[in-house]
Design goal:
Shape: globular
Strand order of the largest sheet: 1-8-2-3-7-4-6-5-9-10-11
Number of helices: 13
Strand content: 15-25%
CATH class of the largest domain: Alpha Beta
Protein name: Threonylcarbamoyl-AMP synthase
Helix content: 25-40%
Pfam families: Sua5_C, Sua5_yciO_yrdC
Order of helices and strands: EHEEHEHHEHEHEHEEEHEEHEHEHEHH
Organism: Latilactobacillus sakei
Distance between the termini: 53 Å
Catalytic activity: L-threonine + hydrogencarbonate + ATP = L-threonylcarbamoyladenylate + diphosphate + H2O
CATH superfamily of the largest domain: DHBP synthase
CATH topology of the largest domain: DHBP synthase
CATH architecture of the largest domain: Alpha-Beta Complex
Number of strands: 15
Radius of gyration: 20 Å
EC number: 2.7.7.87
Amino acid sequence: METKRYTVNQIEQAAAALNAGELVSFPTETVYGLGADATNPAAVKKVYAAKGRPSDNPLIVHVASVETVEHYAVTSNPAFRQLVKAFWPGSLTIILPLKHGAFDAVVTGGLKTAAFRMPDNQVTLSLIKAAGVPIVGPSANTSGKPSPTLADHVLHDLTGKIAGVIDDGPTGVGLESTVIDLSVATPVILRPGVVTQEAIERVIGPIMTNKHKVGAAETPKAPGMKYKHYAPNAQVYIVANPDDFDAAIDWASQQAVPFGVMAVDTILEKQAKVRFKDQFSLGESVVTASQHLFEGLRYFDLNPEVKLILVQGFAKEGVGLAYMNRLEKSAGQKYFSKQQAD
């Protein structure tokens, strides 16, 4: 299959491909999504096949209007209206109970709920409207790998497997959306994102964060809860304390493998690049680091010599909570400690 790179002026062509049951990757403010007609089970099955995604990992349904959500889901919870008013279009995914027969089980993972989001990207909102159907949209990458923040990332993973990708340049946020479950008595954040718990609580009052680990026999209610995610080819080690980078680089230098460093500019400027194979700048703060985390991990995938990556950690607060959620998964929870270097 030829995979086309659509421009933002070729939305009608991309919509026609979706209506024909094909897969089209689309840009959002978070990461690039892999789109299929949510009302076409055969098309949705192609999403799982193209990504190599486990079939019990439910998909997020992208919409261009609140009315579409109302057509498929039970929206009587007052928190739904409050959150939509505050955060849509935007980086918040909302899980709701479904009306009977709303979607095929291939969309929901067999659950009686579904996750909905209205992305903050005019190109994709126009695509959904042109297609005339809601669109499922997991990240447009091979399952388990870092999410795509550029059309080139999508093409690297999925060329020959999808009809095309709409190239709208780099995504602005760089991390997937916050997921909140409104199908339970007390709303629960199942996946952190740039829409923080504090911001949500200012709108709807106290909520909970998920502490439950999904078992092997369970179906997760949201993406990112059960399976390995965001892993580059090289082993990642998190450097939690910026002051430990000298010790971490000394330790990595003794591992007899080429290694790279991902950190903010102030840290990289202090290091002699000759000590490591390559580097990737995370900008100047946790905000820019979040925007470029996946891009950096993919950057090192293009350098197969690099077998180990030291990546800067941040405090688990605000956007840092979402950043660390992704980074810990990419590292398999591996942290550098000074005890390793001793």
